[in-house]
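User: Before I run my own analysis I want an independent prediction to cross-check against. Here's the chain; please return only the structure tokens and, at the end, one sentence I can use as a sanity check.
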Amino acid sequence: MLEPTKKRHTEIELKFTGPISNKKAAIKALQKLGFVSHKDSSTAPWRDFFPELEDNEAGTYLSGARHREGWTQRELAEKTGIKQHHISEMENGKRPIGKKNAKILAKVFKTDYRIFL
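Assistant: Structure tokens:
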């Protein structure tokens, strides 16, 4: 499997309290660390561009995680013990993932189970 060449940024929001006279210096220091202002950024939340996926966010995460690993639904079924057709239904929003399956999937993908809920 090909490894990504660039790690994705995790979006965080920082808020500071301090003297207004140091605002420009603080912004400049953060920019040196790779931070960008929202008004300067050319990025936007994925929901703005793919609103059709918002109704099945957990299924989208599941499908994306599976594709990232390069696994078929059948391979994921073998690794988790969840039936392949149930995985298909979960990815397509026809079946809820549920807490039990979310924990199984999170263990296989080494992530927090709550993204699948």
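Sanity check: Helices lie at 23-32, 46-49, 57-69, 73-80, 84-91, 98-109.
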